[in-house]
């Protein structure tokens, strides 16, 4: 991980770090790289991935139309909403 | 008059009548449209929800010290708000993401249970690391934990990872008495003398109660932490991507374009620890690193699950430290801002496998899936001696 790669990650995640934070983040990534070296001590090539720890199956439900929340309720926590719409800066000129 | 104890929830549990912040500026003042399933179940069972307790930002820190709304210090060390409220007489219910509830309760003279994954509904919790986080209970006694667990453990159609009623019911009983407990040699690496003494004390109490305790060689603790850090941060990165300053939550006042709105809102609202986790998680999921990090961690998860299976062929439970030291100070965080990614070495094995874990008196007990009742029974042996 270097500053250029870190900047790309910041952009992808819509974050912006200060220079001091970037240095700390690079140190953090260095430690995590050591962690990866620990994991690489294990040969897992023939091991199957385990996504779910318990035997679960996809829940299939009947399609039943419902209206649990109305628009006003859903927008109650919006930082800026008007006339039933979420307000954002203009994205098309 | 009801004799039931009151319930305090940590701020990862959604409530309709109280704000839910996840300890983050991003959700300051946020009001959920519905209650978590745990809240509904407890209310229907006659429990009074007394209020909320602060938690660390998205519950990934040590004991709540990263909460945007402040963290209490006592005698120079951090104290967990949920545990403080339990000490005042309530029973606590919270979301255990990265072990903070287990660490805090083990350090505070309380007891907590992180039940078998899938037995307590996660519907209505702030999602962080869905494949391992579990609604957990903190109490003053094992009986408190058992009582509340019996209410929140049930099948819930609203949670896709909720197990069947038959399986959920298994955690409510003690199906067998523990006869043999293992201490994994690698779990004692890095713990201080005080914690080592806690393990020795617990071991002595078990032996006095006729339980055989053996030290076993195992690398579980070496591999669980790095693998869990990868999985937790990768899932976290996706889950917090919904917080963009548009639909709900914090919005920066400093923007002219939509990209500035997103970036400045997230940058101003998220704390440094969370940003580290987001970036690390995002890196793990990138094209270059997916196979070498995320995929690898998923495979290591199976290795750890199978290692536990082998241990549980000969032993009923595993006894290990809950933390490397019995209190964390601001100096600890100053020296290592990312200490929670090291200290979770003791809690990661149960998180990554979904196995039940009981924490008390500086130690944790991990048992096979659905052995929750047996783990609480072991905890009662300790309580009997310390009465």
Specify the CATH architecture of chain B: Alpha-Beta Complex
Tell me about the largest β-sheet of chain A: 2 strands, antiparallel
End-to-end Cα distance of chain A, whole Å, is 37 Å
Number of self-contained structural domains of chain B = 1
Which sequence of strands runs across the widest sheet of chain B?
Answer: 2-1-5-7-6-11-12-10-8-9
What structural class results from the helix and strand content of chain A?
Answer: mainly alpha
Q: Any idea what the shape of chain B is?
A: globular
Helix-strand topology string of chain A = HHHEE
- Percent range of helical residues of chain A: 25-40%
Query: CA-to-CA gap between the ends of chain B?
Result: 28 Å
The total beta strand count of chain B reads 12
Tell me the quaternary state. Answer: heterodimer
Spell out the helices and strands of chain B N to C.
EHEEEHEHEEHHEHEHHHHEHHHEEH
- The overall pLDDT average of chain A reads 91
């Amino acid at each position: 991980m270097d500053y250029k790669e870190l900047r790309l990650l910041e952009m992808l995640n819509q974050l912006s770090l200060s220079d001091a934070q970037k240095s700390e983040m690079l140190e953090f990534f260095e430690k995590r790289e050591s962690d990866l070296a620990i994991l690489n001590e294990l040969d897992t090539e023939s091991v199957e991935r385990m996504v779910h720890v318990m035997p679960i199956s996809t829940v299939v439900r009947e399609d039943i139309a419902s209206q649990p929340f109305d628009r006003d309720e859903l927008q109650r926590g919006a930082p800026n909403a008007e006339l039933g719409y979420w307000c954002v800066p203009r994205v098309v000129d | 008059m009801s004799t039931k104890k009151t319930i305090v929830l940590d701020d990862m549990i959604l409530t309709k009548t109280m704000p839910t912040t996840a300890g983050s500026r991003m959700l300051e003042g946020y009001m959920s449209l519905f209650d978590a399933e745990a809240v509904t179940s407890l209310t229907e069972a006659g429990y009074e929800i007394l209020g909320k307790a602060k938690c660390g930002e998205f519950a990934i820190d040590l004991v709540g010290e990263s909460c945007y709304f402040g963290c209490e210090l006592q005698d120079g060390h951090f104290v967990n708000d949920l545990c403080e409220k339990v000490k005042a007489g309530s029973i606590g219910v919270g979301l255990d993401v990265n072990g903070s509830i287990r660490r805090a309760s083990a350090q505070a003279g309380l007891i907590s249970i992180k039940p078998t994954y899938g037995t307590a509904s996660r519907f209505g919790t702030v999602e962080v690391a869905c494949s391992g986080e579990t609604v957990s209970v903190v109490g003053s006694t094992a009986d408190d934990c058992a009582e509340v667990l019996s209410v929140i453990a049930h099948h819930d159609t609203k949670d896709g990872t909720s197990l069947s009623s038959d399986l959920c019911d298994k955690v409510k009983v003690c199906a067998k008495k523990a006869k043999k407990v293992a201490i994994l040699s690698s779990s004692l690496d890095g713990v201080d003398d005080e914690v080592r003494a806690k393990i020795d004390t617990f071991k002595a109490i078990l032996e006095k109660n006729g339980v055989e305790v053996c030290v076993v060689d195992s690398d579980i603790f070496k591999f669980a932490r790095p693998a869990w850090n990868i999985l937790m941060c990768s899932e976290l990165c996706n889950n917090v991507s919904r917080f963009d300053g548009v639909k709900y939550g914090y919005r920066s006042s400093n923007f002219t374009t939509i990209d500035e709105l997103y970036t400045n809102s997230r940058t101003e609202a998220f704390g440094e620890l969370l940003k580290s986790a987001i970036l690390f998680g995002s890196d793990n999921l990138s094209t270059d690193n997916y196979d070498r990090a995320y995929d690898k961690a998923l495979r290591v998860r199976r290795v750890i699950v199978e290692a536990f299976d082998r241990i549980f062929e000969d032993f009923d439970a595993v006894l290990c430290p809950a933390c490397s030291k019995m209190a964390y100070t601001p100096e600890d965080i100053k020296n290592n801002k990312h200490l929670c990614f090291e200290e979770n070495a003791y809690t990661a094995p149960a998180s990554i496998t979904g196995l039940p874990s009981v924490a008390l008196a500086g130690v944790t007990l991990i048992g096979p899936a659905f052995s929750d009742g047996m783990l609480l029974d072991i905890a009662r042996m300790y309580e009997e001696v310390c009465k």
